[in-house]
Every structure is written in C-alpha cells, then in structure tokens.
TrEMBL record, chain A:
PANTHER family: CENTROMERE PROTEIN N
Organism: Perca flavescens (American yellow perch)
Metal-binding is among the record's keywords: no
Name under which the protein is recorded: Centromere protein N
GO cellular component, one term: chromosome, centromeric region
Automatic annotation (TrEMBL), chain B:
Gene3D superfamilies named among the record's database cross-references: P-loop containing nucleotide triphosphate hydrolases
One GO term describing the cellular component: nucleus
Short name of one Pfam family: CENP-M
Entry keyword annotation includes Nucleus: yes
Keywords, ordered alphabetically: Centromere, Chromosome, Nucleus
Taxonomic source organism: Perca flavescens
Annotated compartments: Chromosome, Centromere; Nucleus
Protein name per the record: Centromere protein M
Statement: the UniProt record of this protein carries the keyword Nucleus: yes
InterPro entries hit by this protein: Centromere_Cenp-M, P-loop_NTPase
Main location: nucleus
Length: 345, 184
C-alpha cells in the first residue's frame, strides 16, 4: 500500500461513525472472521485505523478494495452533499433493452475514450439502482480518489443523480452517459437536494399523491384525534377543504424532504407608484429563495393553515408537479396581464 | 353579515361557553384541551379561525359568554385577522365579554409598534389584554386559569359580580405618552 492509499483509508475511517464501522466492514467482506474479531470497536478511531491499516497491509489490499469500502458506506448513507438530478432525453429504439453488463462496459469504454486517467467503479444496489463511482484525473495526473463523483442511475428510467461534479467533468460524464444508455441528450432537471431518496421520489412520483375527488373522505376519518364533545370547531369544513387543497397541491402523508426552492425573476418591474423603475426597459432581476429542512411540508402547512391562500399559486405547486426546485421566471409578451412562467435552462 | 349576539339564546344550567378566535389555530387547540378539564362548571369551547361564524352552525351553537381573540405578536397577519373579525361582534359583547390574549410578546423579533397597536386596540374597546406563554405546559395552564376566571364571571356563575363590573377593573389602559418617542 502506498502513501495515498493509506491516506484514503484513514480519511474514510474518519468519516464512518464508530457505531456503523462494524456493519460496514462486515458488508465489505475483505477481512477474515478472525481479523474482524481481533478488532476492538470500543477503541479510539485512531487506534482502529492503525489496526485496519496493518490488516490491509497483511491482506495486500489495494486502492480498488478501499474504494469498494467507500462505495458500500456511501450507498448506505447517501445523504451527504448536494445531489443534482439530470434527465435523459430522446431515447433511441433500443434504450429500453439496455442491461447492466452492457451498460457497464459501454460506460467504462466511452469514458476512457474521453479521458485517459479515470477510475470507474460500478456496483448494483439492491433497489435496482446502479451506483457509479468516478475518480477523475487529468492528462498528467493519476485519478484523485479523494474527490470522487458519485452517479446513481436506475436503468430504464430517464433520470440520473449526481453528486460532487465539477463543471469541467460535466460534459465528459454527460457524453458517456448518453452513449451508454442509448439516449440522445441529457439536460439539467433543475432539481437538487441533500437527500437522494427525496429527489428520486419526487421525480419518480413515489410519494403519496392526493387527487381531487367529488366525494371527499369524511372528516372523522382524517383526524380521529378530535374526540372531546365539548370542543367544537366552527369552521371545520373550510379547514378540511384547505387541507384537501393543500394535499392536492403538495401530496399527502410524508413528503420528500427538499431543502430549498429558488426562483430567478427576470420580469419587468411593475408598480404604479414607482414610475422610474416601471419605465425601465431591462427586466428587474432578483432571486427569491425558500429554505427549510422540509420545504414541501412547510408549504403544505402554510396552505392548510390559511397563511397562504388556496388554491395554491402555480409557482409553488409546480415544485412537486414538475419535479423542479429551480425556476427562471420571464415575461412572455408585452401586456402586464400576460405574465407567464417559463422555466428555462 | 351575521352578528354574533350575546343574549340571543338562553344560557344552560351551570355551563359556560367560550369562543376562541385565532387565525393560526395552534394555541387555541391546547387551550381548549385545558379548558374542558374544568370540573366545577361545564365548559364548552368553540374554535374559530376568524369571524363571522358560518351560518349553518347557528342552531347548534350555544350562547357564547366570552370571546377571546388570540393574537400571535410575531405575525402581522394574526393581528389583522383579529382586527377584521371584531366588526362581526354585537356591541353588547364589548361590555366585558371580549378579551384579547397575546402570545409571543417576549420574542425579540417583535416590533414594539405591533404591541402598541394591540394595546391601543384593546384600550379603545375597553377590553382586558392578557399575555400568555404558548410554548410551555405551565404557560397554557396559567392562561387557562385566567380565562376561566373571566369566563365564570361573564357566564354569570359568580354571585355579586358581572362582566361589566369586572371589565371596569381589568380593562386595558394605554399610558398617555405611548406615542412619544422614548429617550433611552
């Protein structure tokens, strides 16, 4: 093991919490039962790292084995860093018949054609998603395993999720992905968040959606907590209507956890009392950002408690509807009433 | 527009009815749960987001003895909603059967003007202004006790005391120099 491999292992062990270390090493399966037993997990991280380094030395493990361990840890704990969603466009005829081995080979060979020094590792997770770990190098340097890019793609779906990708590497990855998945183009889906599962659920519509019905469910069924006969809500019906409208807009039950929504406004300034600004030719640029630990939940609460009026404005309800949290709003047409939203990019 | 009237219905035996109006519908729920615990009299609680109350409940609604407007000082909307609701009350209520309850007054982000506005509002209507803590169970119990005291008088369950008499003693007054800029 050379110096950089040791550093990689040290850093990795530092990142894994002590209580998870044992199960992660178990899954890794590179240590024999005796070696696992000889490790005392009550010791400090530093002592554990030293011990593990000695064992790895003994087993003659190389970089690729260490990256395997890292992948196992990341797959189990994907909610680190920002994940960005991309959407594949225009499938070719055989796009639906791409299978794992073919995809693996294709992706690796396409990426190697574009850039010489790159280390790719592909692993299939139990939930059908393919996890790709890419360590990038450049023309003169070897792949840097300290800053790998992770790509998650479920075959036969048009969505790809990427974390820690620099703008320099983006075209390379895009091209390799497009070619190996048999699509024709890839575009930014304008959705990002800290939770991989959340943005995946949002894009693939895997959350509890509520649809308008002519026969709404009886209120008693929805909140069984209201029991005391001495307490009565005067406006229970309108509250139920608001809740229904809010759930129709944002979904019911547990919602995917989004952290932010950004609206970039490029519209003309309109205010009759401020003539100088209104008469300006160029659009008034500003950015509106909503941030919360669970943005959709907050918005639903705003609507259901009446802080925001219902029906919910399409600006907010298009977050779950279109699966985006980055919008560019521009003017369409000259009249002040024809203000249209047009998400771009 | 339907006015809520204080004497349009007959009172029940040993019952007191209170109406809690709060635009955010958070604190009123915990208050209501605490209020109905009272054993000496039967307390009926009606919860509303704002006034006017819907017509279809007119029949089932008992005589309301006390109307409480809960205002969350951190939200301008809460104050505006309470202010807008006031005009749906019969003037008879303002003879001691209305009180204001303010929450979050200790919050640092509250502009002082808003508290002044609430005080002026309460003073102009000759209503008591109560301050409550809505985050702690102790605060809820405390607020409940104070409301119950007023409610029992307003419902006519306390001999020798009337709502009008009590409100003369408890109504909010505004110091004459409230509009003066402070010098500290």
């Amino acid at each position: 093991m050379d110096e950089s491999t040791k550093r990689l292992l040290q850093r990795l062990i530092r990142r894994i919490p002590t209580q998870m270390l044992r199960t992660t090493l178990d899954k890794w399966g590179r240590l024999t039962g005796g070696q696992l037993h000889s490790m005392d997990f009550t010791q400090s991280k530093w002592a554990l790292t030293e011990k593990l380094l000695a064992i790895c030395e003994e087993n003659e493990l190389a970089v690729k084995h260490i990256t395997e361990l890292e992948m196992i840890y990341i797959i189990d704990n994907p909610n680190q860093g920002m994940w960005y969603a991309f959407q594949l466009m225009d499938p070719e005829d055989d796009a639906h018949s791409v299978e794992l081995t073919q995809f693996k080979e294709q992706f690796k060979s396409h990426l190697r054609e574009l850039i010489r020094h790159v280390s790719v590792k592909i692993k299939k997770h139990t939930d059908e998603a393919v996890w790709i770990r890419i360590a990038w190098g450049d023309t003169f340097s070897r792949p840097n395993h300290m800053k790998p890019t992770y790509v998650v793609h479920s075959l036969q779906t048009p969505y790809v999720f990427v974390t820690s990708l620099t703008s320099k590497q983006k075209p390379l990855l895009s091209q390799a992905l497009v070619l190996s998945t048999r699509y024709q183009a890839i575009k930014d889906a304008n959705l990002s968040g800290r939770k991989l599962t959340a943005i995946r659920d949002l894009l693939m519509r895997q959350y509890h959606q509520v649809f308008p019905t002519r026969y709404p469910t009886p209120l008693a069924e929805n909140n069984p907590a209201v029991s005391n006969q001495h307490i009565e809500k005067e406006q229970a019906e309108s509250a139920a209507n608001r809740l229904q409208a809010a759930c129709e807009a944002f979904g019911g039950g547990m919602l995917p956890q989004l952290q932010s929504a950004v609206y970039k406004l490029e519209t003309k300034f309109r205010d009759h009392s401020n003539k100088t600004m209104t008469e300006r030719e160029e659009p008034f640029r500003c950015v509106v950002k909503f941030a919360s630990t669970n943005l959709l939940e907050s918005l639903r609460h705003c609507a259901s408690s009446g802080i925001a009026s219902t029906p919910v404005t399409p600006l907010l309800s298009s977050i779950p509807l279109k699966g985006k949290n980055y919008f560019v709003i521009t003017d369409n047409g000259p009249g002040p009433s024809s203000q249209m939203r047009q998400p771009q990019k | 527009m339907s006015l809520l009237k204080p004497f349009s219905k007959l009172p029940g035996l040993c019952t007191a009815n209170i109406l809690l109006v709060e635009s955010e519908e958070q604190f009123q729920q915990s208050l209501a749960d605490a209020l109905v615990e009272e054993t000496a009299v039967t307390v009926n609680v009606r919860l509303a987001k704002s006034l006017p109350l819907p017509m279809e409940n007119e029949e089932s609604r008992p005589r309301i003895d006390l109307v409480v407007f809960i205002i969350n000082l951190t939200s301008e909307l809460s104050f505006q909603s309470a202010e807008a609701s006031l005009k749906y009350l019969d003037p008879g209520y303002f003879l001691g059967k209305v009180c204001f309850m303010v929450t979050n007054a200790r919050n640092a982000s509250v502009p002082t003007e808003r508290l002044d506005a609430v005080r002026k509002l309460a003073a102009s209507l000759n209503c008591p202004l109560l301050f409550a803590e809505d985050q702690t169970p102790d605060g809820v119990t405390n607020a409940t006790e104070r409301l119950l005291t007023i409610l029992k008088v307003a419902a006519g369950l306390v001999p020798m005391a009337t709502a009008l008499y009590l409100s003369n003693l408890t109504r909010c007054t505004v110091p004459p120099d409230i509009d003066q800029p402070s010098f500290d």
